[in-house]
Amino acid sequence: MAIQRRSFIATIGSGLAVGAAGCLGSDEETAGDAPDIAGETLTLTTTTSTYDTGLLDDLHIPFQDRYGVTIDTIPEGTGAALQIGRRGDADVVMVHARSLEDEFMEDGHGVNRRDLMFNDFVIVGPADDPAGTADADGVIGALESIAETDSTFVSRGDNSGTHTKELELWEETDVGEPSGEWYLDAGQGMSSVLSMTNQQGDYTLTDRGTYLSMRADLDLEIHVQGPVEGGTDHLANPYGIVAVNPAVHDNVNYDLAMAYIGFITSLEGQSIIEGYTVDDEQLFYPEALSEEPNFEQYVPAGWRGSGDNGGDGS
C-alpha cells in the first residue's frame, strides 16, 4: 500500500459546489426527489478504533448539524458490527476486515461499499522488549520470538478486524495456531486490550490510531512498525463503509445511510479525516478519493464478471 498524505482542503469549496449541482439538479427536481431526512436517526455500527480515538465526534457534528439528524453509534469489533448489520439492526457499518466485509456483501446484506481510510497495525510492548521483537525478521519473526520466549501476548479474541489480522499473521508463522499460558484471549475491545497489556502482558497487536490516542497513559512502545512508518505492508489496515441492503432489511434508513456515506467520502469528510490528530500525530489517512480507478472498492475483492458484458459468458 502506497503511503502518502493527501491534501483536500484547498478544493473543498469548488468540489462541494460541483457535487451539489450534479446530485441535486434544478430546484424543482430537488423539491420533488430529494429525501427528507431531517429529524431522523442513523444507526451506525463501527469498529471500536474509530470510536475510541474520537474521530467520529469530528465527523458527526457537521453532518448532524447540516441535515438535522442524529447518529446512534454502536462500537463493536468488526465481526460483531457486521452481525448487527446482518440482523438489520444498523443502517450502515464502518469496519476494517476486508474478508469479512466481502462475506457481508456476498451474502446480500451490504451494498454500495466504499473505501474510506487507512492506517496500520503495530506490535507494541514494554521498553525492554523481552522477546527481542524489534530485532526479529519482520512481523512474522517477531511473533515467533514472542512464542519462543513464552512472552505474554494479549489477543483481542473477539473476531474484530484486528483479531482477524492477528490470526492471519500467526498462520504464516511456525506456530500456526497460538496456545498456551503465554497467549491470553481477552475477548475485549482495543482500548481494554491495551490497558490489559500495559498491566499484565508483554505484547499485543494494535491499530496505530488507538495506540496513539492512549499512548500518554501507557508504558508500551512500538517495536514492529507498519507501512505508515516504513514497515511491512503485512500490517496495512484499510477501513471500509457499507450501507445495509434495504432490499433484504426493509426497516433500514437507506436514504440517511447513503447521505452519511456521501458525506464522509466527500472532499469535506475526507479532509476531516486527514486533519484529525492526537498530540500532533495523524491517526487516519483518507482513501475514498483517488486519481486512479478503483472499482473493486464497490464489490468483493478480486471479483470479476462472468462475461465482458456482464452476461453468462456464453
UniProtKB/TrEMBL annotation:
InterPro entries: ABC-Tungstate_binding, PBP_domain
PANTHER family for this protein: EXTRACELLULAR TUNGSTATE BINDING PROTEIN
PBP domain residues: 42-266
Organism lineage: Archaea, Methanobacteriati, Methanobacteriota, Stenosarchaea group, Halobacteria
Source organism of this protein record: Natrialba hulunbeirensis JCM 10989
Pfam families: PBP_like_2
Protein's name in the database: Tungstate ABC transporter permease
Gene3D superfamilies in the cross-refs: Periplasmic binding protein-like II
